[in-house]
Q: What sequence folds into this?
């Protein structure tokens, strides 16, 4: 399993149990008997399974009892043929028009000479003949492997049912020879008929069919195993055929009442799909005169009606594809800047816009995203686009999305993509014939820092801090808050310590007996966070540079360090040891009071900005 399925709802389970209880009393119809072995089915068998595209299962009754798949194999066999052959080849063998005939009609389309569709026996036998023809020796193994992948477990053939149909399937044999006569089948039809009888005799359970239905609902990806037996393109075609031809001459009424692509089989199974949402399967052998399971049809009807599952009953999707959007002044990176740079950034931050997109960006969603972007981009020249919550960017929308990014770039907007790895976006955009880099970042914070750097670069050096006039000036940022005499006292007490790039300055769990003032270089505080996927991620809390202090929380509270600090570059810090600080309390209490006041002010500034951003997160 790729996803461990979440816990299931008692309410939904209760709903299926209620359906099962009520429809157990429906005793119309009888098991198929035209294949003698099928007549042995127990008419009281009854199971209902429902699967979700994210891997949850609801089931009630005989959902693990084996029976033969029969005609439910037909859309899947057609899917396999589309994997093996071109669309043109398959189109030359079988049509895709509903026939209005019974499943076993001995008829071909008068104009084209082909079977009307792959769901009636003529079309299904023609389809299976192609699979056989592809590799006569391996066809059976190929078929079984494929059906097993769809169901997510090893399936086998019920030899008794196979032999029973083989011995009595004269009508299908007549169809096979008719197809041979019209060169739809190009070899001896007997071998292909055998493969068709075997395909119909594959043993499944109601649960297996629900997994197969979920695989169709998931565009061909089995949500229980993570394997992909079908492409989205082929899956769409199979679903279209199931919708128009899946229930033979009942297909129009079915689509009108139930509105779901579905397929029934004379073994008693019914499989229905709510694309993108659910798989549904029922098992109950008694059939109506058209060969469909009586209880299966009734249950699907009630589910479609009661739960609004019809394809034609789609709610208007109006929720925004922008999860959040805010100005650069409302969110900044965790890199703390020295005073000059901070001031410059403060003035220009609103040239940055941060946008978090979300959901599946299908056509309707991408259209909304593009128009929403247009509405918020005036006076902005740096766009940070965080797509961590975009669950999918379908191929059809990808081009539109990249076109919009290119158009923004052409208008002078720099686009920085954050958390886009899962979307496999190109590294460059072609802007007026020139390939331009599209910077991508693993974390939003890195993109924000880059955006701020761009802003500072654009202010042409005004953001540089003034040159130092003395050694102690190097750390003026923080020490500037002290009286010059006290500043000197502290400077005399502190040790200068050098670090090479990558060195650990502090490790989580260390005792906090030192206070650091950055003399040169940059130092980053990181913590380990557990993501919603259970993985541990390193996350930056802050980066400090010249003149800033760190390590003060554990230093003041006497508690162990809660995060790691490493040097981003070669650099150095002034370090105040606790015992020197304690001594100072004895003989220069005023200096200590001033230092504490400065630390409080510094902490206050950091806290104010952090809580401002947190509050905005809640309200934006
Ligand atoms: O071709 C046949 O007769 C069977 N093996 C399959 C027919 C079937 O399931 C028709 N479906 N409703």
A:
């Amino acid at each position: 399993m790729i996803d461990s399925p979440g816990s299931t709802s008692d309410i939904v389970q209760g709903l299926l149990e209620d359906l099962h209880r009520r429809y157990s009393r429906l005793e119309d119809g009888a098991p198929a008997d035209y294949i003698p072995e099928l007549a042995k089915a127990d008419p009281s068998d009854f199971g209902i399974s429902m699967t979700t595209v994210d891997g949850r299962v609801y089931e009630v009754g005989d959902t693990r009892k084996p029976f033969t798949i029969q005609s439910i194999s037909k859309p899947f066999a057609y899917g396999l043929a589309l994997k093996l052959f071109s669309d043109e080849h398959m189109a030359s063998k079988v049509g895709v028009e509903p026939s209005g005939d019974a499943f076993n009609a001995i008829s071909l389309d008068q104009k084209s000479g082909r079977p009307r569709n792959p769901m009636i026996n003529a079309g299904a036998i023609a389809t299976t003949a192609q699979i056989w023809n592809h590799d006569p020796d391996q066809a059976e193994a190929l078929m079984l492997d494929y059906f097993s992948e769809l169901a997510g477990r090893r399936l086998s053939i019920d030899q008794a049912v196979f032999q029973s149909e083989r011995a009595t399937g004269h009508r299908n044999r007549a169809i096979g020879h008719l197809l041979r006569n019209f060169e739809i089948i190009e070899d001896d039809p007997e071998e292909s008929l055998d493969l068709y009888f075997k395909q119909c005799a594959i043993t499944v359970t109601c649960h297996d069919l629900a997994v197969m239905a979920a695989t169709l609902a998931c565009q061909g990806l089995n949500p229980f195993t993570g394997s992909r037996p079908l492409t989205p393109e082929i899956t769409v075609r199979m679903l279209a055929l199931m919708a128009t031809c899946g229930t033979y001459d009942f297909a129009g009424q079915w689509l009108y009442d139930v509105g779901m692509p579905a397929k029934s089989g004379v073994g008693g199974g019914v499989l229905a799909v709510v694309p993108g949402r659910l798989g549904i399967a029922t098992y109950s052998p008694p059939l109506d005169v058209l060969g469909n399971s009586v209880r299966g049809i009734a249950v699907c009807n009630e589910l479609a009606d009661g739960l609004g599952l019809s394809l034609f009953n789609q709610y208007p999707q109006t929720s925004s594809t922008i999860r959040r959007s805010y100005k650069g002044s409302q969110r900044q990176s965790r890199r703390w800047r020295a005073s000059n740079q901070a001031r410059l950034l403060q003035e220009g931050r609103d040239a940055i816009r941060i946008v978090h997109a979300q959901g599946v960006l299908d056509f309707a969603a991408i259209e909304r995203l593009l128009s929403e972007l247009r509405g918020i981009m005036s006076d902005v020249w740096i766009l940070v686009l965080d797509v961590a919550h975009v669950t999918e960017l379908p191929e059809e929308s990808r081009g539109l999305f990249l076109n919009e990014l290119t158009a923004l770039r052409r208008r002078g907007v720099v686009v920085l993509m954050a958390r886009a790895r899962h979307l496999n976006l190109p590294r460059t955009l072609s802007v007026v014939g020139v390939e331009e880099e599209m910077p991508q970042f693993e974390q939003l914070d890195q993109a924000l820092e880059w955006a701020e750097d761009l802003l500072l670069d654009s202010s042409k050096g005004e953001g540089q801090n003034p040159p130092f006039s003395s050694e102690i000036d190097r750390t003026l940022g923080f020490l500037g808050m002290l009286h010059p005499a006290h500043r000197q006292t502290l400077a005399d007490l502190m040790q200068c310590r050098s670090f090479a790039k990558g060195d650990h300055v502090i490790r989580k769990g260390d005792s906090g007996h030192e206070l650091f003032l950055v003399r040169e270089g940059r130092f980053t505080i990181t913590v380990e966070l557990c993501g919603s996927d259970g993985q541990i991620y390193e996350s930056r809390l802050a980066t400090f540079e010249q003149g800033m202090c760190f390590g003060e929380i554990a230093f003041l509270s006497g508690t162990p360090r809660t995060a790691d600090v490493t040097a981003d570059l070669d650099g150095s810090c002034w370090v105040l040891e606790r015992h020197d600080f304690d001594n100072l309390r004895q003989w220069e209490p005023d200096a200590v009071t001033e230092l504490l006041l400065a630390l409080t002010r510094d902490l206050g500034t950091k806290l104010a900005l952090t809580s401002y951003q947190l509050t905005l997160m809640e309200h934006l």
About this structure: The chain has 21 helices and 22 strands. The chain has a mean pLDDT of 91. Residues 70-71, 103-104, 121, 165, 172, 200, 264-266, 291 surround 6-diazenyl-5-OXO-L-norleucine (CB under 6 Å).
